[in-house]
Amino acid sequence: MAKVGVVGIGHTKFGNLSEFDLGDIMAYAATDALEDAGFLEKRKEIDQVIVGNMASGLFCHQSAVASSVISKMDMEPVPAELVENGPASGASAIKIGYMAVASGMADIVLVIAGEVMRKVTGWTGTEYVATMLHPQAEYDMGLTLPGFGGMFTRMYMEKYGLTERDLALLAVKNHANGAKNKYAHIQAECTIEAIADGPEANVVNTYVAEPLRMYSTCPVSDGAAALLLVNMDSPKAKLFSKKPIRIAGIASATDTHCVHNRKDPLKLDAVRIAGEKAYAMAGLTPKDISFAELHDAFSILELAISEEVGFFERGKSFLAVRKGETEIDGRLPINTSGGLKSKGHPVGATGVSQAVELVRQLRGEAEEGRQVRDPKYGMAVNFGGFGNNVVAMIFAKE
Amino acid sequence: MIDFSMYDFKEPEIMAYKCEKCGTLYYPAPMICGKCHSRRDPVSDAHWETFALKGPCTLLTWTRLWNLPEGYNKKYLLFGIVQFDNGLRASGRLETDNPVTGMPLVATVVSSDERPGKPVNVFVFKEAE
């Protein structure tokens, strides 16, 4: 297989972009990625465009967004296709792009992912996102993704002794990082007094899906991100202005559609298996990872994912958070971008956004105060459904 | 004369499935038995036994959901995952004042027209009397 590297990154600010067209937002991020790679003028030499999106048909009443983006960027006749894998659509688009380059079918691939969710009300948006659940056994019951987040959190708390304050500590950490990230949806710090310890905490930090509170749940965001991938073994690799960041490992795995049908509903087998496959592909172990972006749509997932990919023993990750081990200057910084909690979660865009953060950190281009010291390997986990289709990625500084 | 008895009200039910070939129980049912690969006909359910999933069960976990999706005009709803005596599990609504993990419940089924689209059958787990 050819070595695959990232030579360009682009990212819109996440937030409320509902006045704009999804294709425009995606084209904006993609143009930034091409400019970053010094390849904007030569964009028609790209072999393939892969677009990641979860639900433009529902949120924007628009289908065939890959064709839309190509036209907006004046890139015809470059081939373009859409990849959909729920909230893991972004990382799946990277995986398909990786496969195209590694197989030798393409030398240069542009991956673009985006979502505009705020054209509809939160009431309707919650309904649309819930369509990824099992249609009869979960969706028809009235369940939602935050509902499963709440039930999962309760199981974890009752088994391992996690507290609501521990979840609030994650929000404080991630908001501190997101406050410094120019792309983050919520660029504001929060204090443990305001959201857990103080007398008004129950008002500031209300329940969403007990025991999950607002500060343990990601915002609803719009935005897009893009990557330019290249065959590092090809002479074309010399066409770009930036030194490639190598994709050392990328893998995905699936689990039961119904959460209740898992042998142990507290285990996220798809995360564990995707992680193991990515480590094997990269020839690395969890101890080699310098920092990680983990899909904290609900704060509990940052903890559970960090255990499934081997960073901590099962049921022990929150003890490391209490000690500050996952802060920027800690032993293993997690969600240096602010995570989904602070940076935001435009569902289909998130995997590519996580990859952009890996590249920024590995290049040493993160903002002051949230740059990890001399990172060599970054890992990201993009979580589809409620853990039923998960992608893990490991990027390496060459 | 029209025989209206055929339109008698039927209690809503949610069906579980048993592969007749190997005896494995399912809810909801797959198209292929994961154990013996016997295929299920989605129209006739041939070679698969169907039975109503209801009755005694145990609460495994629960949540009080405050941000309900489109169609629901309630302040909040309780949801839970339960396990039946036969080992099957199900997700659904919870109607109890003080939910506690491990508590015995009874699974009932109601018809709900809250979510967009046609009415659907929904589990409601209630306290055992």
From TrEMBL, chain A:
Residues 252-396 form the Thiolase C-terminal domain. GO terms for molecular function: acetyl-CoA C-acyltransferase activity. Pfam families: Thiolase_C_1, Thiolase_N. This is Acetyl-CoA acetyltransferase. Residues 4-231 form the Thiolase N-terminal domain. It comes from the Bacteria. Keywords: Transferase. InterPro entries: Thiolase (IPR002155), Thiolase-like (IPR016039), Thiolase_C_2 (IPR055140), Thiolase_N (IPR020616). PANTHER family: ACETYL-COA C-ACETYLTRANSFERASE, NON-SPECIFIC LIPID-TRANSFER PROTEIN-LIKE 2. Transmembrane segments: none annotated.
UniProtKB/TrEMBL annotation, chain B:
GO terms for molecular function: DNA binding. Keywords: DNA-binding. Residues 10-39 form the ChsH2 rubredoxin-like zinc ribbon domain. The keyword Ribosomal protein does not apply. It holds the Pfam family zf-ChsH2. The keyword DNA-binding applies. SUPFAM superfamilies: Nucleic acid-binding proteins (SSF50249). PANTHER family: BLR3430 PROTEIN (PTHR34075:SF5). This is DNA-binding protein. It comes from Sphaerochaeta halotolerans.
